[in-house]
């Protein structure tokens, strides 16, 4: 959703995106899979998947997702966008 | 331990474009990509069909890849299983499974789209032998244990595998873990597959667009159904092994299974010719020919008789040697069946009843066996027709026998063939309409969500062929900026990629396969869209590769028209015309042919043929045989046309004029065509006479030149040709190369002489009918539409110019079809759009039993016709005799409550007592537009006559052209009859325009065409300005070399494109504004502009 570049105020009503992905530092291995997310070691990759869509629009989507477990046992979903930009979902 | 030298993975699940909108690559593209990426084998598993299997097998064999065959079949509940062929029995079962899956796809109402194929588990399991079953794809596979156990019981543990895929979707791991557990419980291995839909990642967007097209939605509206990423593109075995790194046993299983699947379609099909090896067939065929010999040659000269006898013996020997006697007997049997059908269709007391049921065409006309068994009507010995193209000792595939039938006979014959030989033993050959420019623009444009009106504009401005030039189409229609828009750019790219990919299965015009063993053991057979017909899932090339015997039962409109014509002559004049006995040297007929007065006749009526006739001046039937063959891509590309015409004119001026040949050995074979290659069989004769090819080798060269899949194969013959020419004739390489190039130039489509002779005879017969019975001939042409080069409107105008009277549709005079009434042609109700055949027949029947219609109320009450049909009749002028005019008739119908069918019976029409107002008469233009909207024929003549006073003063009529000097600047207005831009003409477009005095040929060179392309492609009325050309060599033919084009239709508010019945009135009023031409210099575009109105009138309405 386009919020016009301004974050909606908490409790201010209106629509806003939940769990908006945030940029994150990710270290990768030789195959390009995450080894470290936000400075924490990845101990397991539960799944990875690809989303390549909306290529016919001015905003094509090309994301490689990984669902990983970090050294604390926390599960998070990170994805890589073109330009090697990494974001984290949760 | 896996062998490190072998690929670690084999792809066992791939779709080609024959999965129709669920696959984007042709089989040969998949094969090439598989070889390139290191695969040793590949399975093709299209959805519910084997249409691409033979093409795949041939391509794979040629490129050293092992082809594995299979299909992904859809079960009753919509789930899929992947079936792979292990043995010949497996192939037979797969063909039967797919045949069963399709058997109810066409049992809905006629014309409804096909239902999706569905298969019961029971039918699947009853045909399990020789097949390996995989449990199906990630989204639609069999994933429940109960069904999987049922499959296990049917296929057994050695022939069932649990299929695991990795489409790179969220949830893959969970699903595959569950499938691995299922496999363990069943005690069968898992096998990894890739569910390939594209041979390369570049086709991934096209796959998304195809899904949108298949669903009839836009890309934006079908996200859940699309594949979501590009992982369905074929990739390397290593990458696939890596993708399944957590399931190495499933990867290894793909290779183990592939090793077992050794069925080879190119040699294990098991098809046998009907009566192959039947010794009785040889004797029976000889007896049939012997019995017919005296009837055909009893009155011939001893020389011809002897020659025929020798030819028959030679042919019977070749046929016996090839084991084809049963093949000929089967065709004769089929002809006898056609004779029965023809007798039923024609009735016993008609002039048609004495005619043979059909006629031969194609190379089979050169066979004396075909002549004696009735499969051909041309004497090949008297006609000096060469057999080698049809039949020779070295033949590598079975010959084709083509038969033409009148449409009504063919329609009944095809289902009768199915009945006679068995539904499982007969089928029509398939064909696969492919994406071309217009279909790609419309379908892909809609998928991309582009504006519908703009898509249509681009589609109409396109030449309709190459999907690779859509960018230019967009620029032409929408301006140079449009193509820069990203979505239009995607359309350009996708249309280029889609070009040539099959869209759906369809039926070949007439190719019929007949087998003595069940055909459904060789290839699936499915119901056609046309009730009672069945089609095999292979096209003619695949059928030929399979060695199937094919007979072409073709419908020929002109054959129907001439039969209709002789019947009409008998009814109207009491004259019985036997076309087989008309004189073949009728002076009036040849005079018309030499003057190119051939509109409406068979084959020699087109613009190009007419201009050629003026130059070649045919004198005999043999000349017409050449004439029929000359305007074809083969002779044109081979550079034969101009040399032939130049030599022909030289010979006409001086019968002793010398003709030059490239080599003396070519003189005997090219003598009748004056040193040029006009006929396809001359390619064979040249190869034989000049390079010493055997008949089989020469036929191999010809086939290589004509087949779409083997353009490179021609080169393979070149070396052999040059060697042979040196050995046989001592020809040097330079000369041999020139002769080879002459042959290769012919590689486009050309006619064999036998075919030309058959068509030439029909061309002559139809011209004879045109000359001696013009009204009946026109009548027959109108009733057999669509056919031929000219639309009905042009046929009528041309006949009117020759003095044939054409009368309008009349509610009290017309019949369903057109009729001849006192020497004039009366249009029938069948010509009126919106009046169905049954409705028209009911109107005629009620009139004949209960009397003429007294008024429109009577018509509405008694006819039982729907209101819309009656309105269409009123607008066509059919009710003028009841109401006085079209508008009055519409008014009268409007105030009549129509008859209605109800449960309690028919509620009769009730005329309301409303006084009719005085309505203004429809003007000439309005009548013409109403005619176009209803009958498609402006019966009062070409509409240019009406607007003539408004045209620029310098605009001349076509009839004036003979008085204008060669090279003069000339302006003309005309209705576009035909636009042709043959690929052989270097980008030149030929326009045929018609005005009130005749037709005009206009030649538009590429530069002018590109400037005015949208106008030329889409406008019905044009004003052209150019140079008059009448070169001496044209034999009096005149054309205009166009410099500028302007639209008349646009300036006249588009009246000529009226499509809605009732909009013409308003357009007529709008167009009544006076027009004047802004005089423009000759090299500028001519512009017609409306003059300012004298009074404001209705402006701003």
TrEMBL record, chain A:
Residues 1-32 are annotated as: Disordered. This is Unannotated protein. It comes from freshwater metagenome.
From TrEMBL, chain B:
It catalyses: DNA(n) + a 2'-deoxyribonucleoside 5'-triphosphate = DNA(n+1) + diphosphate. Pfam families: DNA_pol3_alpha, DNA_pol3_finger, HHH_6, PHP, tRNA_anti-codon. It is found in: Cytoplasm. GO terms for biological process: DNA repair; DNA replication. Residues 1068-1101 are annotated as: Disordered. The keyword Acetylation does not apply. Residues 10-77 form the Polymerase/histidinol phosphatase N-terminal domain. SMART domains: POLIIIAc (SM00481). Its EC number is 2.7.7.7. It is an enzyme of class 2 (transferase). GO terms for cellular component: cytoplasm. Gene3D superfamilies: 1.10.150.870, Metal-dependent hydrolases, Nucleic acid-binding proteins. Keywords: Cytoplasm, DNA damage, DNA repair, DNA replication, DNA-directed DNA polymerase, Nucleotidyltransferase, Transferase. One of its GO terms (molecular function) is DNA-directed DNA polymerase activity. PANTHER family: DNA POLYMERASE III SUBUNIT ALPHA, ERROR-PRONE DNA POLYMERASE. Belongs to the DNA polymerase type-C family. DnaE2 subfamily. This is Error-prone DNA polymerase. It comes from freshwater metagenome.
